[in-house]
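Key idea: predict the complex, not the pieces.
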Amino acid sequence: GENVEQHPSTLSVQEGDSAVIKCTYSDSASNYFPWYKQELGKGPQLIIDIRSNVGEKKDQRIAVTLNKTAKHFSLHITETQPEDSAVYFCAATGGSYIPTFGRGTSLIVHP
Amino acid sequence: GAGVSQSPSNKVTEKGKDVELRCDPISGHTALYWYRQSLGQGLEFLIYFQGNSAPDKSGLPSDRFSAERTGGSVSTLTIQRTQQEDSAVYLCASSSSGGSQPQHFGDGTRLSIL
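Result:
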């Protein structure tokens, strides 16, 4: 089955800095890679996703890149703000209808 | 309400009791998923429904756990004879067709077993 590794587990940055979270996956059949943001006491919410026919996607301060050959994808947040503080999860979905999630990254943005 | 709704939001019960957790998915979403999240941990897959069928129950941790979905809509997760290790947040998500589609999560039920 699919295996998704996510790093780092904790990321601490100053407001205005950039943050990068990386994930690797094992199943070459995976073709959909969403990122979710989970705030305290809430369920995860989709913030951006990418499909395997695209190498990069941007939405304002958030971008995701995908390297199919190396089987890794990354989340980039620029000009971080305190409200970006949350836990971020990557996921990979392929032949199975069940997404495999990474273990999460706790992002802390210091004002 | 356009989002996924879960009830109750919090449940405290004594060890050995049965509990039922409810999930109302987004209208028209055929795929529904249950996950368990322990404090500060990731998402543990429990079960997946496509319509009323559960093609994948592989994540249910024991035979004390069961789930059903009726009318292709509401789903109920039942835990019998609860144990303290069942304490966690139970999250439900739905998507339009499963697979390579975004999941929409509810805010979960926080279950505490005394």
